[in-house]
Amino acid sequence: MTESHPTITKAVIPAAGLGTRFLPATKATPKEMLPVVDKPAIQYVVEEAVAAGLSDVLMVTGRNKRPLEDHFDRNYELESALTKKGDATRLAKVQESSDLATMHYVRQGDPRGLGHAVLCAEPHVGNDPFAVLLGDDLIDPRDPLLQRMVEVQAQQGGSVIALMEVDPEQIHLYGCAAVEPTGEGDVVKVTGLVEKPEPADAPSNYAIIGRYVLDPAVFGILRRTEPGRGGEIQLTDALQQLAEDEKAGGPVHGVVFKGRRYDTGDRSDYLRAIVRLACEREDLGPDFRSWLQRYVTEEMQGS
C-alpha cells in the first residue's frame, strides 16, 4: 500500500533581496517588479505556483518591497478608469494579478540568507510540506517543473529539489548535488549537497535551480544551522542534513529539468529572457522577430 502524503497547497517566495546587480533601476523599485515584456518577473513566479495547484502564497519581503503587495492588490481607481473607458482587455490584465492566489506577506528583517528566509515562513506553513520558488528563475509554463516535483514528493515523501545539468566550469555558481539513479529517468536520489564548489571539488554537474518542495522538518534543522558560506544561513546546508539522515525528515530527491528556464537575476540573461519570451508571444512575436532579424543582419554587415 502506497504511503499517503499531505497535499501541498502553500508556496513560499523569498523576495527580500536588494537587487544590487540592477542598480540604479532597483534603487526605488524591487528587482522582482522589473518587467519581463509586460509583466513583472514576480507575476510569472506566482502564476507558476498557481498552475501547480498552490493557491496560498507567502512572500518573504524586506524594506522597500511595498510595490509587491500593491501589485497583487486591487487598484480600484485604475479599474474604475478602465471601466469608464470600456477598455475590457486592459481591465482584465489589471485584475488578473489580484485574482491569482491568496497572498500573504512577512518581513525577513535581517537579510541572513535563503535558509533564514525560509525559516521566516514557519508560522504560516505549519507542519505540512510546502514549495519554495526563487524569483530569479522563470520556468516556461510549457515545461511544468513544479507540478512534477509535487508529484514526486507525493510518491516519495521528504523533500524534492530541482536540478539542471550545467557546464562543469559553471558549477561554482550554484549549489551542487551528489546523486544516485532511481527507477525513473528524470528523478535522482540526492546523497549530498555542496554550496558553490570549485569545479575540481564538485560531485557532479547537477546544479540546484530555484525550485524546492520541502518537508517541514527543514525548519527544525534551519533553527540549528550555523551561518555558512557568506555568513548566511544556507538552505543547502539544511538539505544536506536531510539527505544524510532520512529519519530527520528525508529522503531528498531531485527532479532533473531539461526544459526552458530564464534567469532574470543576471543582466545579460534578463535581456535574453525578454527577447526569447517576446519572440514567442503571438501578439508580439511576428513583428518583433522580423525586426530582430533585420537588426542582427545589419549589425553583422556593419561589423
Structural shape: globular
Query: In DSSP terms, counting alpha (H) and pi (I) runs of 4 or more, how many helices?
Result: 11
**How many domains would you count in the coordinates?**
2
Spatial gap, N to C terminus: 67 Å
Radius of gyration: 20 Å
Residues in helices, as a percent range: 25-40%
Q: Which CATH architecture of the largest domain?
A: Alpha-Beta Complex
CATH superfamily of the largest domain: Spore Coat Polysaccharide Biosynthesis Protein SpsA, Chain A
Question: Per CATH, what is the topology of the largest domain?
Answer: Spore Coat Polysaccharide Biosynthesis Protein SpsA, Chain A
The CATH class of the largest domain is Alpha Beta
Major sheet: order of its strands? Answer: 5-4-1-6-11-8-12-10-9
Low-confidence spans: none
List the helices and strands and how they pair.
Layout: E1 10-14, E2 35-36, E3 39-40, H1 41-51, E4 56-61, H2 66-71, H3 76-85, H4 88-98, E5 102-107, H5 114-119, H6 122-125, E6 130-133, E7 137-139, H7 145-156, E8 159-165, E9 175-181, E10 187-195, E11 206-214, H8 217-224, H9 235-244, E12 252-256, E13 261-263, H10 267-280, H11 285-302
Parallel strand pairs: 1-4, 1-6, 4-5, 8-12
Antiparallel strand pairs: 2-3, 6-11, 7-13, 8-11, 9-10, 10-12
Helix pairs in contact: 3-4, 8-9, 10-11
